[in-house]
Known about the structure:
Layout: H1 2-5, E1 18-20, H2 23-33, H3 42-46, H4 64-77, H5 81-95, H6 104-110, E2 126-137, H7 142-148, E3 156-164, E4 170-177, H8 186-192, E5 197-201, H9 209-218, E6 223-225, H10 244-264, H11 270-282, E7 286-287, H12 292-312, E8 317-319
Parallel strand pairs: 2-5, 2-7, 5-6
Antiparallel strand pairs: 1-8, 2-3, 3-4
Amino acid sequence: xxxxxxxxxxxHIPKQRHRVxxxxxxxxxxxxxxxxxxxxxxxxxxxxxxxxxxxxGGQPSYSALAIGTALxxxxxxxxxxRQTEGLIGSILQLxxxxxxxxxxSTLSRRAETLEVPxxxxxxxxxxxxxxxxxxxxxxxxxxxxxxxxxxxRRSWRKLHIGVDAETGQILASELTTSEVDDGSQVExxxxxxxxxxxxxxGDGAYDQEGIYSTVTQRxxxxxxxxxxxxxxxxxxxxxxxxxxxxxxLQSIAEHGRIGWQKRSGYTRRAxxxxxxxxxxxxxxxxxxxxxxxxxxxxxAITVHVLNRMLEFGRPKSVRIA
Length: 321
């Protein structure tokens, strides 16, 4: 992108300054995110134990609510499974509740099949921002690799997310292996978004003909805002029936890439990068689970936690310089 290639010539441009207009509410929301106020409603106490099953096989001792609560605390406080078991036990003891504590083996096993509620989108058309990032797998620490070296490259997984530009909520997520192309996950992400799209915004990795057709078939009225590649050319039918990509190329030729970014609304894509940064700062940049299904559950719980934190409050800022 232009801001990357011209970095050596942008030192004279002052950095933008913004002022938060709802600082009191946002400050209270940040404190509430770290509050350790825990309570159990009567409904939660009654639903802690699993319903008896009528089919053959072993009877589960804990409900999905109990397992989900424990795994949520594990994600928030970055705990191992045994430490999570100890935390749940101490909370129940402090509250004086006579409830059984799920052990670490049960938490690990039930994470394989736990169903986490999907995030709900707003009623109006959504400005969907998509991007991906890497999450490392548990293994040798950074100090161990630097000190003694390693014979093989460290494994990692790629997380694809779709963010609502208006609310900052993560509406869709997919966890894949590192070699999976970003464009191949557009359809699974769109399957998770309930509602119509006002726009679909992604970086240059999504400049593919198949993505344009997929988004157009599902949401004909949506604007697809993706920067064309530097070698992109106009289509043969540009004079009669120009495509969205053709209009982007024409706008870039007339106003330049920076001008196109401002006119098209591509600058909103910074919000999905902020969501990825929030995920890694709050939850971490790695996956603790050992199997693929448990890693998917871990990601789903992470998304649920971040969305709940955003419900407490978000900053509203205006540019002052």
